[in-house]
Design goal:
Elements (H helix, E strand, L loop, with lengths): L1 H4 L11 H4 L4 H19 L4 H24 L6 H21 L6 H22 L5 H16 L5 E6 L5 E5 L5 H11 L35 E2 L14 E7 L8 E3 L2 E8 L2 E8 L5 E7 L4 E2 L3 E2 L6 E3 L2 E5 L4 E6 L5 E6 H5 L13 E3 L2 E5 L8 E5 L5 E5 L10 E5 L2 E8 L2 E5 L6 E5 L13 E3 L3 E6 L3 E10 L2 E10 L10 E3 L2 E6 L2 E6 L5 E7 L4 E5 L4 E5 L4 E6 L7 E6 L10 E3 L2 E5 L3 E6 L7
Parallel strand pairs: 3-31
Antiparallel strand pairs: 1-2, 4-37, 5-6, 6-7, 7-8, 9-10, 11-12, 12-13, 13-14, 15-16, 16-17, 17-18, 19-20, 20-21, 21-22, 23-24, 24-25, 25-26, 27-28, 28-29, 29-30, 31-32, 32-33, 33-34, 35-36, 36-37
Helix pairs in contact: 3-4, 3-6, 4-6, 5-7, 6-7
Amino acid sequence: MASDATFILPPGSATTDAAMRPRIWPAVVLVGLFWIVYFAVDLAEMSMFVGFLIRTAALAVVALVFMLWWLINRRISRSDRFLVLGAAVVAGAITTFLSDDTVVKATVFFTAIPWLLTAWTLWLLVARRMSVRLRRLGLFAALFLTWIPFGLIRMEGLSGDGNPQIRWRWSRTGEDLFLAEKAQGIGNASDLRTPVPSRDMLTLQPDDWPGFRGPNRDGEVHGVTIATDWNTAPPKLVWRQRVGPGWSSVVIVGNRLFTQEQRGESEAVVCLDSARGRELWVHQDAARFSENLGGVGPRATPTFREGRIYALGATGILNCLDAASGELKWSHNISADSGAKVPIWGFSSSPLVVNERVIVFAGGESQRNLMAYHAESGELAWTAAAGHDSYASPQSASLGGVGQILFFSELGLTAVDPASGAVLWEHAVAAPGEPRTVQPHLIGESYLLLSGANSGTTRVDVMRDGGAWHSSERWVSRDLKPFFNDYVIHEGFIYGFDGKIFCCVDSQTGKRRWKQGRYGNGQVLLLADQPVLLVISESGEAVLLAVNPHQHEELGRFQAVNGKTWNHPVIASGRLYVRNAEEAACYELKLASGR
């Protein structure tokens, strides 16, 4: 009995049952406070970065105080205090060392420690009336069993709110399944029934979708009016299949679909038959981008212009391809041309083609941040200083009757001349540490909106007085704080995501009209002629909303694809195209009567 008691009592202490039981309430309070803070962050709908900082600070404080409470607990022998703590640390170190390569080591700490402290506390509560030996053995078992699962998982990036997405490490990834299908000749692989791609130049039609967020990069669809009774008659599935990982959207030109994806150690630009999903051609480069938080594959969306596809990969390979055949016309590595390192989340700038220039953002520490190549030859036309860090794309605009290229970086907004790259004007928007991911949004030719997850949304009024440009802030609102979710504007009202919840904001005042609809970190399109909103949730649901500045009005929904969906949806020629990092699908939209 004496040996058992050493776990609870130091030598010379009383041996009554009451005295043998350590006081557990401090641990219960600490663990309870942590979980209150953890869930309060979600309820408060903070941005991912702010929420992460608060949870990290709470965990650090709780873990430190918990350890101090354990080490100074006089009702537990000194040797056992250090033995149990040492066992927890050793088990954690072994688990972290043996964890899968996809698991960020810091993530093991942030994810496992709360559960470790919780299991520790719960066992002390459950075992209060057990024998000392059972308490000791049970506590060792609880600590080791808490660590073990973290050595059996792999990480497939983060969700939009920063929580790790985990799978068993021995399960096959979506990319593994996709490559296995390709190797077996199933899925969207070409077959004898697929026609040989025509070498005739493809031409853009009014209903086509030529690039990132549409012809004007504003997420607006024109020329189509659809039936909205989705709850009784949802869109009809045309095809659905696996794709390689990547966050690229799709381009639709006639009966061709273009996108980018990762295929093992190759980065691919892919052309499919948009009506059947069958592969027509593929161009591959020996490049692979994989980042444990954002995931695998290219980020940018290709751009179609005058018979050619311009595509930028996550490692910086910029390709010009014949859209009909996939023949390579020219290629550059913008990382090499600019001297910029590959950004932490990969090159994400969707190419913009204006005035026979292909414009992309390279960033880096030099002044060759924004780069323009001759569309025909691929020769470098100009470079401009437009900031070092950004995951946004260049945007064509007309302000004060002057055509220009807008780019949003950590410095704020930079406007350059599309022909020469000369900087026309700049407007600083302070947001320390905030990655720029959302496009500038024009409203008319006199003002625009700039947004971020922490800084909120700023309305900037722009005037041209002779040869001088003047910009001023009309308002700054924290009622709209999109992370990487672009929004749309209709008749003076903004519709988009404030964090994970959809909302409507008055563009004249910056005041919120309503906030409702928990769709995660999704994306939105505006069918401007109707008008209705199409939201793709982070979980792959397609949701139809009324354009209503007075209230949130959901018209219907259906599951379009499965899995985390950050890719922008596309509507072209009466069809809806949705993809994510694992699958793509095409749906026939029922047109409204009389259309």
